[in-house]
Amino acid sequence: MIAFPKEWTAVFLLLLCDFVWALLIHFKLQIGLGDFALLGSALAIVAIFRGIFVQPRLALCAEGFALSISASAAFAVLTYLGCAANLPLVDKELLMIDRSLGFDWPGWYQVIVDSPVLAVVVVWIYNSMIYQGLYFSLLFGMMHRPDRLPSAKKLPLACRGPAQDNDAPDGLSA
Fold first, then answer.
1. Which pTM does this prediction carry?
2. In which region does residue 26 sit, left (phi positive, over 0), alpha (psi from -120 to 50) or beta (all else)?
3. Dihedral angle at the C-alpha atoms of 38, 148, 139, 50, nearest 10 degrees?
4. pLDDT digits (tens, 9 = 90+) for 99-123
5. For site-directed labelling of 145, which of 1, 15, 88, 138 has its Cα 20 to 30 A away?
6. Positive or negative, the Cα torsion across 51, 1, 147, 35?
């Protein structure tokens, strides 16, 4: 039995959109069998703990982790497709919205750049998203609370993208 049918359906639909969009713009993504090793291992652990050893909490942990891996990959491909579309930026409009709400991105960016300690802390927090996802997978799986896992995963999935260290602004690379 699948613990997260709605979430798996959403990931599948997102991957389907990724696939169709990639075909339409002739986007080439090189994926090898090794790219599925971690996901395959997590799904194998789910099968083992559901069918052989019958440990529903450990199966739930592994399924939550597999779901996180799958969603992260789907959103990463979506991000690359968005970049490949080469559409005009909407930075001015977004900045106007932020300022109307009283938030000053350039000001806060400068505060972080001017403080090396704060810059390291922000980078550490950003890079800890995968560990937070793993933690919530284990925590709610062991508590046998699959209803809590999807809501706990929304923030890391929304915040984490395929950014590399060389994509970070000056002074914010790890």
1. 0.66
2. left
3. -60
4. 899 888 888 899 999 999 999 999 9
5. 15
6. positive
